[in-house]
Task: structure prediction
Amino acid sequence: MKSMTKALLASAMAVAASVPAFAETTITLGHVDPVEWTTSKKGAAAKVFKELVEAESAGRIKVNVYPSGQLGGETDLVQSAQEGTLTMAMVSGPFARVCPEAGVLEIPYLFPSAPVAWSVLDGDFGKQLSEHCLAKTGLRTLAYGETGFRNFTNSKRAVSEPKDLAGLKIRVMTQPLYVEMVKAMGGEPTPIAWPEVPAALTTGVVDGQENPVSVIYANKFYEMQKYMTLDGHVYGADFFLINDAIFSKLPAEDQQIVKRAAQVAAIAGRAIQQINSAEGLTALAAKGMTITTPTAEQLDKFRAVAQPAVISWLEKEVDPTWITKVQSAVDAAATK
Result:
Protein backbone atom coordinates (compact mmCIF):
# COMPACT_ATOMS: atom_id res chain seq x y z
CA MET A 1 0.00 0.00 0.00
CA LYS A 2 2.82 2.34 0.95
CA SER A 3 4.66 1.58 -2.24
CA MET A 4 1.48 2.29 -4.25
CA THR A 5 1.01 5.60 -2.40
CA LYS A 6 4.59 6.57 -3.11
CA ALA A 7 4.13 5.68 -6.76
CA LEU A 8 0.97 7.79 -7.00
CA LEU A 9 2.66 10.72 -5.29
CA ALA A 10 5.63 10.45 -7.62
CA SER A 11 3.33 10.33 -10.61
CA ALA A 12 1.38 13.35 -9.39
CA MET A 13 4.59 15.30 -8.81
CA ALA A 14 5.79 14.44 -12.30
CA VAL A 15 2.54 15.68 -13.83
CA ALA A 16 2.67 18.85 -11.73
CA ALA A 17 6.21 19.49 -12.86
CA SER A 18 5.14 19.24 -16.49
CA VAL A 19 2.40 21.87 -16.08
CA PRO A 20 3.64 25.49 -16.53
CA ALA A 21 3.49 27.53 -13.35
CA PHE A 22 1.86 30.89 -14.17
CA ALA A 23 3.11 33.62 -11.88
CA GLU A 24 0.69 36.48 -11.19
CA THR A 25 1.40 39.34 -13.62
CA THR A 26 0.44 42.99 -13.44
CA ILE A 27 0.08 45.02 -16.63
CA THR A 28 0.01 48.81 -16.43
CA LEU A 29 -1.77 50.69 -19.23
CA GLY A 30 -1.74 54.45 -19.70
CA HIS A 31 -3.70 56.81 -21.98
CA VAL A 32 -4.75 60.48 -22.02
CA ASP A 33 -8.50 60.17 -22.60
CA PRO A 34 -11.24 60.26 -19.93
CA VAL A 35 -12.08 57.01 -18.16
CA GLU A 36 -15.81 57.07 -19.05
CA TRP A 37 -16.14 54.38 -21.70
CA THR A 38 -19.37 55.65 -23.29
CA THR A 39 -17.76 58.96 -24.28
CA SER A 40 -14.09 58.02 -24.63
CA LYS A 41 -12.67 55.76 -27.34
CA LYS A 42 -9.52 55.05 -25.34
CA GLY A 43 -11.59 54.69 -22.18
CA ALA A 44 -13.74 52.08 -23.91
CA ALA A 45 -10.74 50.23 -25.34
CA ALA A 46 -8.99 50.18 -21.97
CA LYS A 47 -12.08 48.86 -20.18
CA VAL A 48 -12.62 46.06 -22.71
CA PHE A 49 -8.93 45.11 -22.61
CA LYS A 50 -8.85 44.98 -18.81
CA GLU A 51 -12.05 42.95 -18.49
CA LEU A 52 -11.08 40.42 -21.17
CA VAL A 53 -7.51 39.88 -19.96
CA GLU A 54 -8.46 39.45 -16.32
CA ALA A 55 -11.37 37.14 -17.15
CA GLU A 56 -9.58 34.95 -19.70
CA SER A 57 -6.51 34.58 -17.51
CA ALA A 58 -8.68 33.59 -14.53
CA GLY A 59 -7.02 36.34 -12.53
CA ARG A 60 -3.43 35.38 -13.35
CA ILE A 61 -3.03 38.75 -15.05
CA LYS A 62 -4.14 41.99 -13.44
CA VAL A 63 -4.51 45.14 -15.53
CA ASN A 64 -4.13 48.55 -13.89
CA VAL A 65 -5.38 51.38 -16.12
CA TYR A 66 -4.15 54.97 -15.74
CA PRO A 67 -6.43 57.25 -17.81
CA SER A 68 -6.75 61.03 -18.27
CA GLY A 69 -3.04 61.69 -18.61
CA GLN A 70 -2.32 60.61 -15.04
CA LEU A 71 1.12 59.44 -16.16
CA GLY A 72 1.77 62.33 -18.54
CA GLY A 73 1.08 63.22 -22.15
CA GLU A 74 1.34 60.79 -25.04
CA THR A 75 5.03 61.51 -25.61
CA ASP A 76 5.64 60.72 -21.93
CA LEU A 77 3.66 57.49 -22.23
CA VAL A 78 5.68 56.33 -25.23
CA GLN A 79 8.92 57.00 -23.39
CA SER A 80 7.72 55.21 -20.24
CA ALA A 81 6.64 52.18 -22.28
CA GLN A 82 10.03 52.08 -24.00
CA GLU A 83 11.78 52.24 -20.65
CA GLY A 84 9.53 49.51 -19.24
CA THR A 85 8.26 51.59 -16.32
CA LEU A 86 4.88 51.31 -18.06
CA THR A 87 3.82 48.06 -19.70
CA MET A 88 1.43 49.45 -22.29
CA ALA A 89 0.29 52.74 -23.81
CA MET A 90 -2.47 53.85 -26.16
CA VAL A 91 -1.25 56.82 -28.19
CA SER A 92 -1.86 58.44 -31.57
CA GLY A 93 0.25 60.93 -33.56
CA PRO A 94 3.17 61.28 -31.09
CA PHE A 95 4.22 57.68 -31.82
CA ALA A 96 5.68 59.02 -35.07
CA ARG A 97 8.31 60.84 -33.02
CA VAL A 98 9.99 57.51 -32.24
CA CYS A 99 8.90 55.70 -35.41
CA PRO A 100 8.71 58.36 -38.15
CA GLU A 101 7.32 55.84 -40.66
CA ALA A 102 4.06 55.88 -38.67
CA GLY A 103 3.67 59.45 -39.89
CA VAL A 104 2.68 58.27 -43.37
CA LEU A 105 -0.75 57.45 -41.93
CA GLU A 106 -1.25 61.20 -41.45
CA ILE A 107 -0.80 62.20 -45.07
CA PRO A 108 -3.69 64.64 -45.67
CA TYR A 109 -6.77 63.22 -47.39
CA LEU A 110 -5.14 59.78 -47.61
CA PHE A 111 -8.11 57.73 -46.41
CA PRO A 112 -11.49 58.26 -48.11
CA SER A 113 -13.38 56.56 -45.27
CA ALA A 114 -12.96 54.83 -41.91
CA PRO A 115 -13.61 51.32 -43.35
CA VAL A 116 -10.79 51.85 -45.85
CA ALA A 117 -8.49 52.93 -43.01
CA TRP A 118 -9.44 49.84 -40.98
CA SER A 119 -8.75 47.57 -43.96
CA VAL A 120 -5.28 49.10 -44.43
CA LEU A 121 -4.36 49.03 -40.75
CA ASP A 122 -5.66 45.50 -40.14
CA GLY A 123 -4.09 44.19 -43.34
CA ASP A 124 -0.60 43.63 -44.71
CA PHE A 125 0.47 47.27 -44.52
CA GLY A 126 -0.47 47.53 -40.85
CA LYS A 127 1.52 44.36 -40.11
CA GLN A 128 4.57 45.66 -41.99
CA LEU A 129 4.44 48.98 -40.14
CA SER A 130 4.05 47.20 -36.81
CA GLU A 131 7.08 44.99 -37.45
CA HIS A 132 9.18 47.93 -38.59
CA CYS A 133 8.28 50.08 -35.60
CA LEU A 134 8.87 47.14 -33.25
CA ALA A 135 12.44 46.76 -34.50
CA LYS A 136 12.99 50.50 -34.25
CA THR A 137 11.40 51.23 -30.86
CA GLY A 138 11.07 48.01 -28.86
CA LEU A 139 7.31 48.63 -28.76
CA ARG A 140 4.96 46.03 -30.24
CA THR A 141 1.76 47.30 -31.86
CA LEU A 142 -0.88 44.83 -30.72
CA ALA A 143 -3.71 46.54 -32.60
CA TYR A 144 -4.80 49.81 -34.18
CA GLY A 145 -7.62 51.82 -32.65
CA GLU A 146 -9.11 55.05 -33.90
CA THR A 147 -8.91 58.73 -32.97
CA GLY A 148 -11.01 59.74 -35.95
CA PHE A 149 -10.99 62.18 -38.86
CA ARG A 150 -9.78 65.66 -38.02
CA ASN A 151 -11.71 68.78 -39.07
CA PHE A 152 -11.14 72.54 -38.92
CA THR A 153 -13.04 74.99 -36.73
CA ASN A 154 -12.63 78.77 -36.49
CA SER A 155 -14.30 81.88 -35.13
CA LYS A 156 -14.09 84.09 -38.23
CA ARG A 157 -15.79 82.63 -41.30
CA ALA A 158 -17.03 79.56 -43.12
CA VAL A 159 -14.25 77.61 -44.83
CA SER A 160 -15.13 75.52 -47.88
CA GLU A 161 -11.82 75.55 -49.79
CA PRO A 162 -8.16 76.45 -49.13
CA LYS A 163 -8.42 80.15 -50.05
CA ASP A 164 -10.86 80.59 -47.15
CA LEU A 165 -8.10 79.65 -44.68
CA ALA A 166 -5.87 82.52 -45.82
CA GLY A 167 -4.76 84.59 -42.86
CA LEU A 168 -6.45 82.42 -40.23
CA LYS A 169 -4.25 81.45 -37.28
CA ILE A 170 -4.86 77.74 -36.78
CA ARG A 171 -3.68 75.87 -33.71
CA VAL A 172 -1.93 72.64 -34.64
CA MET A 173 -0.17 69.92 -32.69
CA THR A 174 3.51 70.46 -32.08
CA GLN A 175 4.40 68.23 -35.03
CA PRO A 176 6.03 69.56 -38.23
CA LEU A 177 3.68 67.55 -40.45
CA TYR A 178 0.68 69.61 -39.31
CA VAL A 179 2.60 72.86 -39.67
CA GLU A 180 3.44 72.00 -43.28
CA MET A 181 -0.15 71.00 -44.01
CA VAL A 182 -1.81 74.21 -42.75
CA LYS A 183 0.89 76.41 -44.28
CA ALA A 184 0.30 74.80 -47.69
CA MET A 185 -3.42 75.49 -47.36
CA GLY A 186 -2.77 79.19 -46.81
CA GLY A 187 -3.44 79.32 -43.08
CA GLU A 188 -1.04 80.41 -40.36
CA PRO A 189 -0.13 77.27 -38.35
CA THR A 190 0.44 77.92 -34.65
CA PRO A 191 1.79 74.96 -32.63
CA ILE A 192 0.31 75.01 -29.12
CA ALA A 193 0.36 72.29 -26.45
CA TRP A 194 -3.04 70.67 -25.88
CA PRO A 195 -3.66 71.96 -22.30
CA GLU A 196 -3.29 75.55 -23.55
CA VAL A 197 -5.75 75.29 -26.44
CA PRO A 198 -8.98 76.45 -24.69
CA ALA A 199 -7.27 79.61 -23.41
CA ALA A 200 -5.73 80.29 -26.82
CA LEU A 201 -9.14 80.05 -28.50
CA THR A 202 -10.88 82.13 -25.83
CA THR A 203 -8.34 84.96 -25.89
CA GLY A 204 -7.94 85.01 -29.66
CA VAL A 205 -4.31 83.94 -29.70
CA VAL A 206 -5.50 81.67 -32.51
CA ASP A 207 -8.60 81.88 -34.70
CA GLY A 208 -9.17 78.16 -34.99
CA GLN A 209 -7.96 74.60 -34.48
CA GLU A 210 -8.42 71.11 -35.93
CA ASN A 211 -9.63 67.93 -34.22
CA PRO A 212 -12.13 65.09 -34.56
CA VAL A 213 -15.81 65.96 -34.05
CA SER A 214 -15.96 64.03 -30.78
CA VAL A 215 -13.06 66.07 -29.35
CA ILE A 216 -14.57 69.35 -30.55
CA TYR A 217 -17.85 68.57 -28.81
CA ALA A 218 -16.43 67.06 -25.63
CA ASN A 219 -14.25 70.14 -25.07
CA LYS A 220 -17.10 72.57 -25.78
CA PHE A 221 -15.22 74.31 -28.57
CA TYR A 222 -18.64 75.37 -29.88
CA GLU A 223 -18.55 78.03 -27.15
CA MET A 224 -15.43 79.57 -28.73
CA GLN A 225 -15.80 78.62 -32.41
CA LYS A 226 -18.69 79.43 -34.74
CA TYR A 227 -17.62 77.57 -37.88
CA MET A 228 -16.64 73.96 -38.60
CA THR A 229 -15.47 72.42 -41.87
CA LEU A 230 -16.04 68.67 -42.30
CA ASP A 231 -13.05 68.09 -44.53
CA GLY A 232 -11.61 65.08 -42.65
CA HIS A 233 -8.08 66.12 -43.57
CA VAL A 234 -6.26 63.54 -41.42
CA TYR A 235 -7.38 60.16 -40.11
CA GLY A 236 -5.97 59.58 -36.63
CA ALA A 237 -5.06 56.02 -35.62
CA ASP A 238 -4.47 54.88 -32.05
CA PHE A 239 -1.47 52.59 -31.53
CA PHE A 240 -2.09 49.89 -28.91
CA LEU A 241 1.53 49.46 -27.74
CA ILE A 242 3.27 47.08 -25.35
CA ASN A 243 6.90 46.90 -24.25
CA ASP A 244 8.14 43.90 -26.24
CA ALA A 245 10.71 42.78 -23.67
CA ILE A 246 7.91 42.46 -21.10
CA PHE A 247 5.55 40.85 -23.62
CA SER A 248 8.18 38.28 -24.65
CA LYS A 249 8.57 37.11 -21.06
CA LEU A 250 4.89 36.21 -20.78
CA PRO A 251 3.96 32.53 -21.21
CA ALA A 252 2.72 31.78 -24.73
CA GLU A 253 -0.84 31.31 -23.50
CA ASP A 254 -0.85 34.72 -21.83
CA GLN A 255 0.65 36.37 -24.89
CA GLN A 256 -2.32 35.12 -26.91
CA ILE A 257 -4.76 36.40 -24.28
CA VAL A 258 -3.18 39.85 -24.39
CA LYS A 259 -3.11 39.95 -28.21
CA ARG A 260 -6.74 38.84 -28.56
CA ALA A 261 -7.93 41.30 -25.95
CA ALA A 262 -6.09 44.18 -27.61
CA GLN A 263 -7.64 43.39 -30.99
CA VAL A 264 -11.16 43.30 -29.55
CA ALA A 265 -10.48 46.43 -27.49
CA ALA A 266 -9.33 48.35 -30.56
CA ILE A 267 -12.56 47.49 -32.37
CA ALA A 268 -14.59 48.57 -29.34
CA GLY A 269 -12.72 51.88 -29.30
CA ARG A 270 -13.46 52.39 -33.00
CA ALA A 271 -17.17 51.78 -32.39
CA ILE A 272 -17.35 54.30 -29.55
CA GLN A 273 -15.46 56.84 -31.66
CA GLN A 274 -17.93 56.41 -34.53
CA ILE A 275 -20.96 56.76 -32.23
CA ASN A 276 -19.56 59.84 -30.52
CA SER A 277 -18.67 61.41 -33.85
CA ALA A 278 -22.20 60.97 -35.19
CA GLU A 279 -23.85 62.18 -31.98
CA GLY A 280 -21.36 65.02 -31.67
CA LEU A 281 -22.10 66.32 -35.16
CA THR A 282 -25.82 66.55 -34.40
CA ALA A 283 -25.10 68.17 -31.04
CA LEU A 284 -22.72 70.76 -32.52
CA ALA A 285 -25.35 71.81 -35.05
CA ALA A 286 -27.87 72.12 -32.22
CA LYS A 287 -25.39 74.31 -30.33
CA GLY A 288 -25.42 76.74 -33.25
CA MET A 289 -22.24 75.91 -35.13
CA THR A 290 -22.28 76.58 -38.85
CA ILE A 291 -21.10 73.32 -40.42
CA THR A 292 -19.68 73.30 -43.94
CA THR A 293 -19.30 70.05 -45.87
CA PRO A 294 -16.97 70.60 -48.84
CA THR A 295 -17.97 69.15 -52.19
CA ALA A 296 -15.82 66.55 -53.92
CA GLU A 297 -14.40 69.33 -56.13
CA GLN A 298 -13.56 71.46 -53.08
CA LEU A 299 -11.91 68.52 -51.33
CA ASP A 300 -9.77 68.02 -54.43
CA LYS A 301 -8.54 71.59 -54.00
CA PHE A 302 -7.56 70.90 -50.38
CA ARG A 303 -5.82 67.68 -51.40
CA ALA A 304 -4.00 69.34 -54.30
CA VAL A 305 -2.20 71.81 -52.03
CA ALA A 306 -1.85 69.81 -48.81
CA GLN A 307 -0.69 66.38 -50.01
CA PRO A 308 2.36 67.45 -52.05
CA ALA A 309 3.65 69.70 -49.26
CA VAL A 310 3.36 67.01 -46.59
CA ILE A 311 4.72 64.25 -48.82
CA SER A 312 7.69 66.44 -49.72
CA TRP A 313 8.41 66.91 -46.00
CA LEU A 314 7.91 63.20 -45.25
CA GLU A 315 10.32 62.15 -47.98
CA LYS A 316 13.09 63.84 -46.00
CA GLU A 317 12.12 61.97 -42.84
CA VAL A 318 11.43 58.42 -44.03
CA ASP A 319 12.24 56.06 -46.88
CA PRO A 320 9.82 57.19 -49.66
CA THR A 321 8.85 53.56 -50.30
CA TRP A 322 6.71 53.76 -47.13
CA ILE A 323 4.67 56.51 -48.77
CA THR A 324 4.22 54.42 -51.90
CA LYS A 325 3.26 51.37 -49.82
CA VAL A 326 0.51 53.13 -47.89
CA GLN A 327 -0.88 54.80 -51.00
CA SER A 328 -1.01 51.43 -52.78
CA ALA A 329 -2.69 49.83 -49.76
CA VAL A 330 -5.33 52.58 -49.69
CA ASP A 331 -5.98 52.22 -53.43
CA ALA A 332 -6.42 48.45 -53.06
CA ALA A 333 -8.73 48.76 -50.06
CA ALA A 334 -10.83 51.49 -51.67
CA THR A 335 -11.58 49.30 -54.70
CA LYS A 336 -12.68 46.20 -52.78
Observations:
- The first helix runs from residue 2 to 18.
- The chain has one domain: 24-334.
